[in-house]
Automatic annotation (TrEMBL):
The protein's name: AraC-like protein
GO molecular function: DNA-binding transcription factor activity; sequence-specific DNA binding
Residue ranges occupied by any HTH araC/xylS-type domain in the UniProt entry: 181-279
Species for this entry: Paenibacillus taihuensis
InterPro entries, per the entry: AraC-bd, Homeodomain-like_sf, HTH-like, HTH_AraC, RmlC-like_jellyroll
UniProt keyword Transmembrane helix present: no
Amino acid sequence: MSKVPLYHHPLPEHAEGSYFHPPYITLGHLFHAPSQWHIPSRMLSSYQFQYVVEGAASYTIEGQTYITRRGDLIYHSPQQIHEVHTIPNEKYICISILFEFGDIPYPVEQLLGSNRYLGNFAGHDIETMLTQLITHYQQPGLAHHAQCQGLLMRILGELSGWKQEQETKTEPQHKIKTKMVLVRNYIADHYNQDIQHHELEQLSGLSRNYIILKFRSAFGITPFDYLTRVRIERAKELAIQTNMSISEIANAVGYSDVHTFGRMFKKKLGTSFSQFCSTIVTDRIEHE
């Protein structure tokens, strides 16, 4: 397989306009893989982020295979051989972002490390930024392009900080983190219900204020902000997988009032629910 050289100038105009300085983002979308979909062994001239929104897939990079599931984020560098396969009886919905820096020797691998599996970011700020990036990418105008580039650089910075934090955690901190993961999973499993603080206290054996403090420390947000995020993600999944109306989706994720749901979605993601739906790709193979 011949290698494709990195770009040595700003990328040509894509469907929505041009990026005039790095980072150059060449793809940013939400992809719902068809049944038995796969990408055979290949190399790209760009970096790629692949974030699992729902389901699972097998991703092989330079001979190392990663089974990725909900919340998992992986990446590969230019000219690395990789392939992707869906898993039988498992759906696969992912955020896919391709980017590069042209002639600029930006130290991506110094920031992210050599391990292609970056971690699980379900409910994390990084998940929100990835969603915001692909939403802005679909919109015309330089303001949206600038938002995309800014979000990408923030994501790289957040990932680098998260990596350093994980490397310095003590054993007691790991035990508290385990309890916070338990709380997070409970919220994720009961997102369409009216969850109360006392339920989380009984689950973890910790006080309300301590839960809020440690949950924020672990995931960057409060438990009930995380509940909102889960509801947003579930709403997006229903938009992808069903023909439900907006009011039906709002009710399914725990909102009896569709207007409250709409205001919440736009406040958190900076775009309306209908605009988000326009970013969904369901009927084609990725041409990356």
